[in-house]
Amino acid sequence: MKEKKRPLNDEIKASKVQVITDEWENLWEMSIDEAREKANSLGLDLMEIWQNWDVSILKMLDYGKFLYRQKKQDQKNKQKWKAPDLKNIRITFKIWDHDLEIRKKQAEKFASWGHPLKVSLMLRWRENHYENIASEKIQSFVASLEEVYKLEWQVKKNGNTFVAMMKPIK
């Protein structure tokens, strides 16, 4: 949502104003002409911050610098709000060691990008009889990732699926 443009210099209609400097020092009440004169002598602009029926509050600042700082702050805030995606890695009960190494390299790549990771191992049909072996397999995989990820919560069994949530170590 865009903020509406605030009145500047000659666009300000108030007759009595209270002026504040760029460092937030209060210069008290004065007429708009005095304020414009003072701002022009310092090579600064007047921007209306608050408008009241009696007195308007103006800030004396360099408007170009103000816009630049505002733009930089918006960019920084936009970067902060970009949440990393949750990445999923599924391993199976019968996965081979080489395939586990490939999954481990994928997980390390995700960690370098700062993505959280969900590791799941789903048991099917007769594999459900070997829960202890499956649990050991996912535990060993999670342990192999300890240098790049930390376990958010322990491996849990939900139905016929083992799940581990991990966060990257920064």
List keywords for this structure.
single chain, 170 residues, alpha/beta, Ubiquitin-like (UB roll), Translation Initiation Factor IF3, 2 domains, 4-stranded mixed beta sheet, 4 helices, rod-shaped
In words, what does this structure look like?
The chain has helices at 32-42, 63-81, 97-112, 131-144; strands at 16-20, 26-31, 45-51, 56-61, 87-91, 117-122, 149-158, 161-168. By secondary structure, it is α/β, with parallel strands linked by helices. β7 and β8 form a beta hairpin. It has two domains: 9-80, Ubiquitin-like (UB roll), CATH 3.10.20; 87-168, Translation Initiation Factor IF3 (2-Layer Sandwich). It contains four helices and eight strands. The longest helix has 19 residues, at 63-81. The strands form two sheets. It has a four-stranded mixed sheet with strand order 2-1-4-3. The chain has a four-stranded mixed sheet with strand order 5-6-8-7, covered by helices on one side. It is rod-shaped.
Short description:
By secondary structure, the protein is of the alpha/beta class. Helix content is 35%, strand content 31%.
Which helices and strands occur, and which strands form pairs?
Layout: E1 16-20, E2 26-31, H1 32-42, E3 45-51, E4 56-61, H2 63-81, E5 87-91, H3 97-112, E6 117-122, H4 131-144, E7 149-158, E8 161-168
Parallel strand pairs: 1-4, 5-6
Antiparallel strand pairs: 1-2, 3-4, 6-8, 7-8
What number of structural domains do the residues give? 2
What is the helical fraction, as a range of percent?
25-40%
What's the tally of helices? 4
Oligomer: single chain
CATH topology of the largest domain: Translation Initiation Factor IF3
The CATH architecture classification of the largest domain is 2-Layer Sandwich
Number of E strands? 8
Largest sheet: 4 strands, mixed
Gyration radius over CA: 30 Å
Main sheet: strand order: 2-1-4-3
Return the string of H and E elements: EEHEEHEHEHEE
Mean pLDDT: 83
Q: Which class of the largest domain in CATH terms?
A: Alpha Beta
**Low confidence ranges:** none
